Amino acid sequence: MLASLSLGTSYSTQHNAAVLAPVLILGVPLYDTFFVMLLRYRKGLSPFRGSKDHFALRLEKMGMTRTQIVYIAIEASILLGLCAWLTTRIWFWWAVLVYAIVIAAAYGVGYWLAQVKVDE
Predict the structure, then answer these.
(1) Cβ–Cβ < 8 Å for 24, 100
(2) Cα–Cα 20 to 30 A to 21, which of 29, 39, 95, 104?
(3) In which band, very low, low, confident or very high, does the pLDDT at 110 lie, cut at 50, 70 and 90?
(4) How many angstroms separate the first and last alpha carbons of the chain?
(5) Given its phi and psi angles, is residue 44 left (phi above 0), alpha (psi -120 to 50 degrees) or beta?
(6) At what angle do helices 27-42 and 92-114 cross, to 10 degrees?
(7) Contact assessment for residue 68 and residue 9, using Cβ atoms and an 8 Å cutoff
(8) Residue 2 has pLDDT above 60, yes or no
(9) What is the DSSP letter of 17?
(10) How far are the Cα atoms of 60, 62, 73, 74, 117 from residue 65, in angstroms, in the given order?
C-alpha cells in the first residue's frame, strides 16, 4: 500500500525537493532496512545475515507489546506521509527544512535504539 501511495502522483510540479517525497512515504521500511544494515556493518557482519537488529525487535526488547509496536509503526508512517505531502505543497527551503528535521529525528531514534542490547 505504501509503494502504491508513493507512485500515485507527480512530485516535481511544485519544486525539485518534492521528488524525495516517496522516500518519506516509504520511510518506515527504508529506515528499518538501512538501520539494520548499518548496525550489522558496524559489527563486521554481513547485511544479509539474519539477526535481531530490527527496530521492532529492539522495541519489544525494551518491554513494549507487539500491539504498541504496530501502533508506533503506523503513527510513524502517517507522520512521514504527512511530511511527504507537506513537502509537495510548501516553498523549496521549507521542504529542505522538513527533510532535515526528519533526518535528525531518524538519527536520534537510531542512536537511541542502537543502545538496546540484543541477543545474537
Answers:
(1) no
(2) 39
(3) very high
(4) 32
(5) left
(6) 50
(7) no
(8) no
(9) G
(10) 6, 9, 13, 14, 17
Residue 24: which of 119, 95, 93, 109 has the closest Cα? 95
- How does residue 8 score in pLDDT terms, banded at 50, 70 and 90? low
- The x, y and z cell numbers of residue 71, run together, are 501502533
CA 54/CA 35 separation, integer angstroms: 8
- How far CA 53 is from CA of 10, 66, 99, 101, in Å, comes to 35, 16, 25, 24
Domain ranges of the chain: 2-114
C-alpha cell at 102: 526528519
Residue with cell 520511510: 27
Please give the single-letter amino acid code of residue 40.
Answer: R
Length of the chain: 120
Angle at the Cα of 19 (from 76 to 70), degrees rounded to 5? 15
Q: What angle, rounded to 10 degrees, do the helices at 66-87 and 27-42 form?
A: 110
